[in-house]
Each structure stands twice: as structure tokens, then as C-alpha cells.
Amino acid sequence: MRKGIEIKFRYNEVKTEILAYLKKIGYNPEKIACVPISGWCGDNISKPSDNMPWYKGHTLLEALDDFEAPKRATHLPLRVPLQDVYKIGGIGTVPVGRVETGVMKVG
């Protein structure tokens, strides 16, 4: 049982630090799920762990299912920052980037 108390203490310590950092950079800590997991043992990945009886929240997969994707800014003008430009023989020059705002349409 001693090890379980140590894990809970370390989890709370890391959670406090991470949420404080995320708050500083503009995220709302109340909307962020902190899940103690062990990929090595499979704890709290897909089913609740017997090794962490003190944790009563979501598993990692449940937390990912509840995650809301950010809204796209499709109402703004098109903005495509270029990451790189490749010259491919037989095809030509291919710019590589991603659409940040707006909508890209054919034609």
C-alpha cells in the first residue's frame, strides 16, 4: 500500500505543475483531464487499474473520446504558411504547408 500512496503523491505533484504551466500559456485547466497511466503495466489505458484504487476518473481512452477538437477559423481569409518547397522530377515544384485559416477550394 505504501507504493500506492507514493504514486498518488507523485501524480498530484506532477498534475499541479502541469496545470499551472498550461494555465500560464492560455489553456483552461478545468477542461483538461489528467489521467495517471502506466503504459508498461497497462494501468488506466483502456480499463480502470487495480494498482491505483485512489483514482476514480476516466481512463485514457475515455478522456481522449471526450476531447473536443478546436474550431476551425473558416470565416477568415485563406492563410497557408509554407513549411517547405520540394522540386520533384516529372511533377514540378510542390509547396508543403497547412491551411491555418479560411477554406481552400479547387479552381
What's the topology here?
Elements (H helix, E strand, L loop, with lengths): L1 H23 L35 H7 L15 E7 L3 E6 L10
Antiparallel strand pairs: 1-2
Short overview:
The chain is an alpha+beta fold and 107 residues long.
Structure description:
This protein is α+β, with helices and mostly antiparallel strands and 107 residues long. It has two helices and two strands, in the order ααββ. It has helices at 2-24, 60-66, and strands at 82-88, 92-97. A two-stranded antiparallel sheet has the order 1-2. The longest helix is centred in the first third of the chain and has 23 residues, at 2-24. The radius of gyration is 22 Å and the shape is elongated.
Mean pLDDT score, rounded? Answer: 88
Shape: elongated
Helix content: 25-40%
Number of helices: 2
Poorly predicted parts: none
Rg (C-alpha, Å) = 22 Å
* Major β-sheet annotation: 2 strands, antiparallel
Quaternary structure? single chain
Q: What is the structural class? A: alpha+beta
- What is the CA–CA distance across the termini? 65 Å
How many strand elements? 2
Q: How much strand? A: 5-15%
- Largest sheet, order of strands side by side? 1-2
What series of H and E elements makes up the topology?
Answer: HHEE
